[in-house]
Amino acid sequence: MSAPQPNPQRSSVAIVGGGLAGLAAGSALAEAGYQVELFERRPYLGGRASSYELPGTAEVVDNCQHVLLGCCTNLIEFYRRLGVEQQIRWYDEITFILPGGRSSTLKPGALPPPFHAAPSFLDSSVLDLKDKLAIARAMMALVPKLPKDDGENFLSWLLRHGQPQQAINRFWMPVLVSALNEDLDRMSVRYAAQVFRESFLKSAEAGRMGVPSVPLSQLYGTAADYIEARGGKVHTRAAVDSVRADAEGVQLCVGGEDVRADYAILATPFNGVEKLLPDAPELGPLRDQLRNLTSSPITGIHLWFDREVTPLEHAVLLERTIQWMFQKSKILATRRDSAQGGSYLELVVSASKTLVEKSRAEIIEMAVMELGEFFPAAREAKLTKATVIKEVHATFSPAPGSDAFRPSHISPWPRLFLAGDWTATGWPSTMEGAVRSGYGAAEALSSGKFLVPDLPAKGLMRLFE
Ligand SMILES: Cc1cc2nc3c(=O)[nH]c(=O)nc-3n(C[C@H](O)[C@H](O)[C@H](O)COP(=O)(O)OP(=O)(O)OC[C@H]3O[C@@H](n4cnc5c(N)ncnc54)[C@H](O)[C@@H]3O)c2cc1C
Q: Are the beta carbons of 446 and 30 closer than 8 angstroms?
């Protein structure tokens, strides 16, 4: 089959999956004049970044707290496109806390990048001088260029660069395990280095942390309005059973009914692709690639207390199972807990392999006990409600060598394109990676330009772009 020439005014595009990849692709193509029809099997949009009402409670919860950084240029452009950029709260400071309550705050200062956070880093009371010198040396090794993935894992790199165990436990591990959702000994050096270069070293703006102030499906549900306002159609509760392509177009089976389109974009998670495609020989290499990708879990623990247990909106919790605390009652514009004297916290555990087999009750008991070590007021507070959300296949694992198994947006069938955080975007499994993949697939299908550039490096980092 030779590559057909699309005409946006007449061409129809079916998109399978209403996560960020599918929504970004659908929004870009609808704006460019394509007839977009998107199918999402769940009753709500957002995929792995979504929210829903917890059965038996009146609570709408995110499947997990999602954060972005200033360097997520395509995600931020997507928010602007949808008109929801005001619904992201931005923070310049991150607080690290030890059990017992000793804390320190990382924030940008007046020095030029890559030294903009150096004064607050040197002031840190959770690291000693030996840690700080070792971390600074290792950071400088990451400045000149992004290393290639040569199969080494990042723990081995850290040990090779003389990092003390305490520096690993209190700095490298908390930052990277939450950014990449993988253990240090299972993540590639390239991805770990990318996190530090893009967010810590490049500029203060690149490292700002953004947190949605509305539930995730509310944020991303606006993409359905955007697509439909441009003549498209978004179907929820619409599971696609199979996808086939021929020289004239693509055929989807949706709940037993056939749907034809000129093109399709498959924007499901990587482990859903195999079930949708027939066992055609030309698809064999794609199947083989995807079988080599693995996934890693994240656990979110949602706790409602009868009172406030900390004034902080968020914090990194060191040296325990729980890794991040987000005070949703302060972050979400829609909540009234504080006015009623209560508080709603979400605790996040990334790469949570040890929690997958544990019961909900065991996890809640552990979390409340650990929380009390950081915030003594939690010991006195009454827990009024709690739930645990385990996402066993939260993200693909950025393991050494994994890039070789991430396919491009172009499939062996000229009328079928691939999107999803697992495609070859160069980014780890993130909302930014998903939006990049959606825009990338839309570019591969059309002659449009949807991807936006990275933030420019500032200060001395301009020498190393
Ligand atoms: C617990 C958790 C925490 C995370 N934290 C962060 C974070 O803080 N920051 C960050 O940037 N990223 C985070 N991520 C990663 C981020 O959520 C994902 O990388 C991103 O949302 C993936 O988007 P996607 O569109 O590629 O895939 P998905 O969101 O998985 O979308 C695929 C969609 O396809 C649908 N689908 C599947 N099969 C079919 C079918 N047969 N028919 C129709 N529809 C189908 C699915 O229901 C789903 O909605 C987190 C992920 C999880 C799970």
A: no
